[in-house]
C-alpha cells in the first residue's frame, strides 16, 4: 500500500500520508440496512467497506504543519505507519512546527503521543478548535459508555502532553499562514476540516464527513455510528459534497483511500469521485 502522495499547490507542498487501513462492518452504519450496503458495494465492485487513516503534511512558508496523526497502534498491525511515511519524505518528528487536530477521536490523535504518553512531536504546537477542546475537557463522560470514556481520557492526555504548546482557535481561524479551519459540525461538536489557499490555488480537507468512500460519497445520507450527532453530520456531508461538486474543488479527507487528491461530481442521487 502506498503511504504517501505529494502535490504542489501554489507555493505550498502538500503530502498525504497514511497511518494504515481498516475494514468496517455493516453494523457501524446503523440507519442503513445491510442489503443496501451490499448493493452499493456490488455496484462499486467491492466486497469490503474499506477505509484509510490519513494525515497531511504541509510545507508552508518554511514551516512544517501536520494535520492529524493516525491511530498509532490502537487498531492493530495494519496501522502505525505514519513514522515510516514521514521517514519516506525525509521528515523527523522533531522538525514538525505545528500539529492540527481536525477532532479528538483516537484515529486522529493517538499518533500525537508515544506509547509512553509523551508528545510524539516534541517541538510542535498543537492546534485545536476551542469548541472541540471544551467538549472533550468537560466532565460529562462519567456516565457515558466505556468507549466514550476511553476516548475522552485519550483526548485529555493529548491536551496535557502538549501543555503550554496547546493553541485554541475559533471555528474559522488561521491554523498557519494560508491554512484556515473549516467548521464541519456533527461528527463531533468542534469537528473541523481546513482550507488551504496558496498563490490562487485552493485545497479543502473534508475532515471526517466521509469514513467509507464507497458508501457515503455515493449516498451521503448514510451515517456512521461514530457521529456524535448523526443528523447534523449528514447535513454537513450533503452540504460540503454539494459545494465541492458545484465549485469543482480539489479536496481530500481523513478516510479516503490510497491516499489521494480528489474532485467529486454529481451522479444519480448522490456523488462519485473523479480524477483531479
N-end to C-end Cα span = 21 Å
Low-confidence segments = none
Profile the largest sheet.
Answer: 7 strands, mixed
Instruction: Write down the CATH class.
Output: Alpha Beta
Q: What's the helical proportion of residues?
A: 10-25%
CATH homologous superfamily classification: Ribonuclease Z/Hydroxyacylglutathione hydrolase-like
In total, the number of strands is 14
| Helical run tally | 7
Query: Tell me, what's the shape?
Result: globular
Q: Provide the CATH architecture.
A: 4-Layer Sandwich
CATH topology: Metallo-beta-lactamase, Chain A
Q: Give me the side-by-side strand order of the main sheet.
A: 1-2-3-4-5-6-7
Number of domains: 1
Explain how this protein is built.
Pfam families: Lactamase_B. Residues 52-255 form the Metallo-beta-lactamase domain. GO terms for molecular function: hydrolase activity; metal ion binding. With 276 residues, this protein is α/β, with parallel strands linked by helices. The chain has a single domain (4-274), classed as Metallo-beta-lactamase, Chain A. Helix content is 25%, strand content 29%. Strands 1-2-3-4-5-6-7 form a seven-stranded mixed sheet. The chain has a five-stranded mixed sheet with strand order 8-9-10-11-12, with no helix packed on it. The protein has a two-stranded antiparallel sheet with strand order 13-14. A hairpin with a 2-residue loop joins strand 1 and strand 2. The protein is globular, with a radius of gyration of 18 Å.
Amino acid at each position: 500500500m502506498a503511504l504517501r502522495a505529494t502535490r504542489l499547490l501554489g507555493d505550498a507542498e502538500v503530502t498525504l500520508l497514511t497511518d494504515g487501513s481498516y475494514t468496517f462492518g455493516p453494523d457501524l452504519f446503523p440507519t442503513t440496512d445491510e442489503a443496501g450496503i451490499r448493493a452499493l458495494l456490488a455496484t462499486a465492485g467491492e466486497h469490503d467497506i474499506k477505509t484509510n487513516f490519513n494525515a497531511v503534511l504541509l510545507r508552508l512558508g518554511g514551516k512544517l504543519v501536520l494535520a492529524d496523526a493516525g491511530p498509532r497502534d490502537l487498531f492493530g498491525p495494519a496501522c502505525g505507519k505514519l513514522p515510516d511515511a514521514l521517514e519516506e519524505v525525509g521528515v523527523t518528528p522533531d522538525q514538525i512546527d505545528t500539529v492540527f487536530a481536525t477532532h479528538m477521536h483516537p484515529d486522529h490523535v493517538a499518533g500525537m503521543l508515544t506509547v509512553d504518553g509523551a508528545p510524539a512531536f516534541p517541538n510542535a504546537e498543537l492546534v485545536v478548535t476551542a469548541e472541540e477542546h471544551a467538549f472533550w475537557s468537560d466532565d460529562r463522560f462519567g456516565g457515558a459508555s466505556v468507549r466514550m470514556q476511553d476516548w475522552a481520557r485519550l483526548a485529555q492526555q493529548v491536551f496535557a502532553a502538549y501543555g503550554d504548546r496547546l493553541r485554541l482557535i475559533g471555528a474559522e481561524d488561521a491554523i498557519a499562514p494560508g491554512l484556515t479551519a473549516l467548521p464541519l459540525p456533527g461528527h463531533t461538536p468542534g469537528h473541523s476540516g481546513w482550507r488551504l489557499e496558496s498563490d490562487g490555488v485552493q485545497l479543502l480537507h473534508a475532515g471526517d464527513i466521509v469514513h467509507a468512500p464507497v458508501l457515503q460519497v455515493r449516498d451521503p445520507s448514510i451515517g456512521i455510528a461514530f457521529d456524535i450527532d448523526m443528523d447534523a453530520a449528514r447535513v454537513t456531508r450533503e452540504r460540503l459534497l454539494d459545494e465541492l461538486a458545484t465549485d469543482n474543488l480539489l479536496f481530500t479527507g481523513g478516510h479516503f483511500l490510497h491516499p489521494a487528491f480528489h474532485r467529486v461530481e454529481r451522479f444519480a442521487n448522490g456523488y462519485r469521485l473523479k480524477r483531479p
